[in-house]
Amino acid sequence: MTRQLPLQPAENRAGRTTFTVDVEDHRPEDGPAGGCSPRYEGMTRRLLDFLEAHGVAGTFFIDGELARRSPSLVREIAARRHEIGSHSYRHVTLECETPAGFAAGIAAAKARLEDLSGAAVLGFRAPAFSVTPPTCWAIDVLGHAGFAYSSSVVPGPALVGGYPGAPRRPFLWPNGLLEIPCPVGTIGRWAVPFRGGMYLRYLPPWRYRRLQAQLGEQADWTYCHPYDIDGKESFARLPGRGWIVSLLLRANRGITLRRWHRLAAHPAPPFAARLPELRAAAVLFEGQGSAPDPEA
Ligand SMILES: [Zn+2]
Q1: Does some domain include residue 294?
Q2: Residue 295 belongs to a domain
Q3: Strand partners for 223
Q4: What is the Å distance from ligand 1's center to 91 Cα?
Q5: Which residues hold their Cβ within 5 A of ligand 1, which is an ion?
Q6: From the CA of 216, how far away is ligand 1's center (Å)?
Q7: How many angstroms is it from 179 CA to the middle of ligand 1?
Q8: How far is the CA of 8 from the centre of ligand 1 (A)?
């Protein structure tokens, strides 16, 4: 159920876009144990160079395990004046976590990122936008861990994740945590997070423009992963993925930066700098889902 806070002007979008990056390694077996150099470091630096060239500061949600493997990369992202957020401890979706295990992991990941960056970590993004009705127990865990906001919900029925009934604009969970949901458009019955990832790479311009017209009062932000811009990565079947999905994830990687180039004409600050504005525009959402299992 949604309830308006005392009326505030809706977020002043004016076409401004916050740039976010989910820093993760989608082929961890290629890392030191597998004998190949992981490619995420180079691609993340390429994204840093792109943002710097466009005068944009973004929000980087970083996988905790990757922060352990690449501490200098985390320091560099912070030194180049971007916000550091957490992308969980070991990049598994919340359905694969228990409340107790998630709490321990997220506390360790937050502490590590704060130690490396020298700044408070305020934001969290769940792997694969996996805050859904069955996993919304994670919101209380994030509140206890000291996070100020989450950006982990696809509001509506979605092919991946999805939270039917969640507002398509910033909202406050019952514990006061701010949610900055993924901007979506509707195709058929599906909420499509068209502003990033594979969607940004594959949607034809006419479809993209139609979805863009549906943004309304949604917080306007975009997202990508280091691999989304890696046109030189060799093709391989990804862990836990079929051949077709692996091929889709590999192809069309020249599109992301072209579309980011256009979005960068009207950038918005990182989320941390927008929190007062986003909270003022937020509605209350009571959520619906399962309580955490105290035995877990
Ligand atoms: Zn991720």
Answers
A1: no
A2: no
A3: 20, 196
A4: 6
A5: 22, 24, 127
A6: 26
A7: 17
A8: 33
pLDDT tens figures, 96-121:
999 999 999 999 999 999 999 999 99
Give the number of domains in the chain: 1
Q: Answer yes or no: is 246 within a domain.
A: yes
Asked if residue 179 belongs to a domain, the reply is yes
> What residue numbers bound the domain in which 201 lies?
2-285
What's the whole-number average pLDDT of the chain?
A: 88
What CATH number is given to the structural domain containing 187?
3.20.20.370
- Taking the centre of ligand 1 as the mean of its atom positions, its distance from the CA of residue 86, in whole angstroms, is 10
Distance 40 CA to ligand 1 centre (A): 12
**Per residue in 206-252, pLDDT tens?**
999 999 999 888 989 999 999 999 887 777 787 777 878 877 777 77
Instruction: Give the tens place of pLDDT for each residue, 158-182.
Output: 988 999 999 999 999 999 999 999 9
* Distance in Å, CA 52 to ligand 1 centroid: 23
Question: Ligand 1 center to residue 61 CA distance, Å?
Answer: 8
Are 183 and 221 in contact by the 8 Å Cβ rule? The answer is yes
